[in-house]
Specification:
The protein is α+β, with helices and mostly antiparallel strands and about 400 residues long. It contains twelve helices and 16 strands.
Length: about 400
């Protein structure tokens, strides 16, 4: 998941005409949807959409600057629409109606600096343009660096102090927490949509953390083959429905289901696993649950106990977790960091790569945020569980 360098071209008409001349670089899916092949990376395609008079492209240049790129220009030249008037000028789409009839309308001066104001002639909306792809005051890379430092063990205040000393950037701890709350859920959903391929054995265990001085149980499901953390769940009690909740989350993160699930002696596991992961072997209904008697047994649960240690290494240096969302945000963010960012010492790569997902080489948190905030495409794969009378583990992938 590498991205092209998005430096503005001095002459955008020439490369656009070259795309049109080749003849096989543009594919029209519908009158308002086109696919244009990248010129620097032939294996990558960018999507150009048209909504009313608004043009958009999924390439990094257009997403960062909101200016007309060579992919949009190529389609306009091919269809005889000519060059739009905003080519070469810093005009942007109206956030209210999506119109490109936007003009400069003075400047706005605030603590973050001086920024241009714009006026939409179609609907009268006045707005400013933020420099980052996500229309934030700070660039996406700054947000990604904050999340990376936080999930590597720094506190919110230490991350804020690091930005002040190293980059002369003032970011309050509260702002960093808002970034975590804003981007971690989307990153989790995007990671689960990748459909990680797992092995035949899962390990499940629960550990305790404290939030507002009260104990909270954190349930984790790890695949033994790839070390991929499939799901995490926070609850007040250790009930059967809590065990079933984390198993249901794990089932939605992979198209593969296990033939063996190892746990400790908690009584809720056997019933929960039997109801969620049963399968037929011949004419017999099989419950894949395996209770591990001790850490010295031949079949142990030490794999997930080791992960619990990694999780607690991050939690124990915190002054405390607060509210209902605090523990959930931390655990879900740690799951993304553990699977896709942090290299696994035993595997020599990240668990996501071991599970068959493409490696987001480069600054991984930055790429994860960019991918997680992209608009959901119509043809995105969605995992649907299909239960049959012969084998409930048969699953299919439905594109909707």
């Amino acid at each position: 998941m590498q991205f092209d360098s998005f430096t503005p071209w001095s002459d955008s008409r020439t490369p656009a005409l070259a795309i049109v001349a080749r003849g096989d670089q543009i594919r029209t899916v519908s009158p308002t949807w086109h696919e244009v092949r990248s010129q620097s990376r032939p294996d990558r395609k960018y999507e150009v959409r048209i909504r009313r008079d608004r043009w958009s492209c999924s390439c990094p240049f257009h997403r960062s600057t909101r200016r007309v790129c060579i992919h949009i220009l190529a389609i306009r030249l091919r269809d005889g629409l000519g060059e739009p008037s905003e080519v070469g000028s810093p005009a942007y789409d109206c956030p209210g109606c999506g119109s490109t009839r936007v003009i400069k309308f003075g400047r706005r001066h605030n603590v973050g600096g001086s920024v241009h104001r714009f006026l939409c002639r179609a609907c009268g909306t006045r707005f400013t343009h933020r420099p980052g792809e996500l229309r934030l005051r700070h660039h996406t890379r700054t947000v990604a660096l904050a999340l990376d430092l936080y999930f590597r063990g720094l506190s919110l205040r230490n991350v804020s102090e690091h930005f002040r000393q190293a980059y002369s950037v003032r970011v309050s701890p509260t702002t960093i927490y808002r970034w975590i709350a804003q981007f971690v859920p989307g990153a989790t959903r995007w990671m689960d949509s990748l459909g990680a391929r797992t092995g035949e054995q899962w390990n499940i265990d629960e550990t305790v953390v404290r939030a507002d001085g009260n104990p909270r149980w954190v349930w984790n499901v790890v695949d033994a083959t790839t070390r991929f953390l499939l799901a995490t769940h926070v609850s007040r009690l250790r009930r059967v429905r809590d065990a079933r909740a984390v198993i249901r989350k794990a089932k939605m993160a992979t198209p593969d289901l296990p033939l063996e699930v190892r746990t400790d002696g908690l009584g809720a596991y056997r019933k929960a696993i039997g109801e969620e992961l049963w399968f037929r072997s011949g004419g017999e209904v099989v419950n894949p649950h395996v209770r591990v008697p001790s850490i010295r047994a031949k079949k142990s649960n030490n794999l997930i106990e080791r992960f619990n240690g990694t999780e607690k290494d991050r939690v124990k240096v915190m002054r405390g977790l607060h509210g209902r969302k605090g523990p959930k945000l931390l655990m879900e963010g740690l799951r993304v960091h553990y699977n896709m960012v942090r290299g696994h010492g035993g595997l020599g790569k990240t668990p996501a790569v071991a599970a068959g997902c493409e490696d987001p080489s480069g600054f991984r948190w930055n790429i994860i945020i960019q991918e997680a905030t992209r608009p959901h495409l119509r043809g995105q794969a969605e995992i649907v569980l299909v239960t049959t009378t012969d084998h409930p583990h048969v699953q299919s992938t439905d594109c909707r």
